[in-house]
Each structure stands twice: as C-alpha cells, then as structure tokens.
Amino acid sequence: MNIGQASDASGVTAKMIRYYEEIGLIRPMGRSGNNYRVYGEDEVHILRFIKRARSLGFSLEETETLLKLWQDKSRESAAVKDVATAHIADLERRIAEMQGMLKTLKHLAHCCGGDHRPNCPILDDLAGSAPGKMSPEPKKTKQPA
Amino acid sequence: MNIGQASDASGVTAKMIRYYEEIGLIRPMGRSGNNYRVYGEDEVHILRFIKRARSLGFSLEETETLLKLWQDKSRESAAVKDVATAHIADLERRIAEMQGMLKTLKHLAHCCGGDHRPNCPILDDLAGSAPGKMSPEPKKTKQPA
DNA sequence: TGTGGGGCTTCCCATCATGGGAAGGTCAAG
DNA sequence: CTTGACCTTCCCATGATGGGAAGCCCCACA
User: What domains does chain A contain, in order, with CATH numbers?
Assistant: First the structure.
C-alpha cells in the first residue's frame, strides 16, 4: 500500500502521515524500490487510532502517550485514565472560558440596537473596560525624562 | 510615555505592542531622540480596547474591524453587531464541538476501571472506531502493482 | 514507443498570536 | 565610570495543518 491508499484507508492526509513520521509519532516506513513508503494494515490501524484521538481533542503529545500505552500490553488502565482525565479537565476549563466570553457577548449584542445609529454598547464596553491589571503593586518603574 | 509604561498601563506586553504596530493594527508611533517609541493616553486607550476585544475572543482581524468602527463616529451599530454576532456563532460552534468530545470522553473515562489491570475501554474506543471516511465513493484510485 | 497524467518524493513557506532570547544602544543613578 | 534597567531590531519556536513547486516514477493508452 502506498501513502495515498493508507491515507484513504485511515482518513489521515498523506501530508500528515509524513509529518507524523518526521516528528517520530510513527516509525519511518519501509520503502519500495521506487523510494515510495509502503504501508500495511497495522500502520493503517495506528493511523486510525491517531485520527480518533485527535478527533477527541488529544494533542499529538498526548496521542503519542496513548499510542504507547495501547501498544504496551502490560499497561495499567489507570495510566490511560489519567491522560483522559487531564484532558477532560482541560476541555472543561476551555469550555468555561469560552462560555464566559459568550455570556458577555450575548449580553452586549442584546443591548446593541444593530441599526443605522452609531450608538453602540458593544464598542462602549470594549472602550471603557478596565485594563488587564489595574495596579496590584506600583512596580518600581523608573520614570524617564 | 515609553513602551514599558504603555504596556503597564494597558496590560499589553511590549512585545505585542511592537507586533501590533508591525502588522498595521496600530499606527507606527512617533520616536523620541533616542529612537524610543513615545505613547500618550490615546494610544493606551486603543491598546486597552484591543486587549478587551482579545479577551472576548475576537481575532486580531476582527479586532481591527472593531477598532475602525470605534474610531468611525458615523458607523452604524448594525456593523458592530454583525461582527459580534458572527463571533458568537463561532464560539457556539466551537463550544458545541468541545462538548461533544467531552461527553464521549467522560463516558469512556467512566467505563474505565483506572486500576492496575491493562483492560481499558478508552483504548478500545481509540483503536476500534471507524476511520474518518468509511467509503462514500470508492474514489477511482489507481491500484499499484 | 511516446506522451499524458497522476502519484510519489523532498523542501520551503504560511497560518495565528505569542513568547524567548541575543546583540547592542541609551540613559539615569550611584 | 559602572551598573542595571530600559529600549531597539532580528531571528526562532510554538501546534497542527495546508499549499505549492520541482522533480522522479510508473502505468495506460494511442
């Protein structure tokens, strides 16, 4: 199987397959006489594993860990669960962050007329809010001339 | 005011202030005799605007649009609301996507013993799921020798 | 046997927003 | 004069992916 077939069979683009090989996520493939990479069912299975992990939001680094655990028949499922749990926490944090933005934006959009007049509470909010840091500690900054 | 002061006053790092100038988000600042950038209250206000827009998840491109609308006193609030509404939709889409991942992961984690045994439904899912594309159309691929 | 076209190779660049750090100029205080 | 904090520009890295060029390889068809 050439890289194109492996791509079709796994759903991972040829570009990405080569990249995964380059960064060491998958082993360098054997080459046929014409210098084409040669794939078998095992490799396609691995690529599908990667594809699925990515679709669940695991980073390539996490995916690598999971891949090694998958191939380690003597793994402890606790190790896998730890990776998943950490990722769950990360997803929850990011979702909460975005929901915070969403809530604010929806409120602002609700308050905005959205008409021909220039008056706009959205811009008022962007313009008038507090800076990132109000001044927790004056920060011994040197005043220039 | 030098860039450090502007940074402290706006919450935008000096690095980012220079970058924003480089990509044309903010105008090149005047320089003092020593070639240092010089900032006033107006610039700090603009930087705070950018900071706030970024904290609400607007891209720099969207932020640029909002900044221009802010400075255009004859804007129509509908234009602002359009940008916000599109961003809201984008946030909702991304949140939904992550919630989908979350739901699946929580289920898998729940089903995983997380103990010393190797048996793990999380890995089973990653290994056994369908590929990205099952075969909607066989895709006239040429079979190599 | 020649040609066309598709697949494969490598290599470089772009994205998006940000940070890190080096090398060197400037300035004020001690 | 030294020290140290500040500023300058320039280059590189991140994470995961796509785009595209230049150049082989090989098969099918005329």
Answer: 1-56 (1.10.1660.10)
Measure, in angstroms, how far nucleotide D13 C1' is from residue B142 CA: 40
Of the candidates A99, A63, A103, A107, the residue with the CA atom closest to the CA atom of residue A83: A63
Predicted confidence at residue A135, as pLDDT, reads 36
* Cβ pair A89, B121 in contact under 8 A: no
Q: What is the pLDDT of residues B9-52, one digit of tens each?
A: 999 999 999 999 999 999 998 888 899 999 999 999 999 999 99
Burial profile B99-135: b = 16 or more Cβ within 10 angstroms, e = fewer: eebbeebeebbeebebeeebebbbbebbbeeebbeee
Phi first, then psi: what are they for A31, rounded to 5°? -115, 145
Does residue B116 carry a pLDDT above 80? yes
Low-confidence ranges of chain A (pLDDT < 70): 129-145
Q: List CB contacts (< 8 A) between A93 and chain B.
A: none
Q: Taking all atoms of strand D, which protein residues have CB closer than 7 Å?
A: A 13, 15-16, 19, 33-35, 54, 59-61, 140-142; B 2-5, 7, 14, 18, 31, 35-37, 142, 144-145
Contact across the interface for A77 and B117, Cβ inside 8 Å: yes
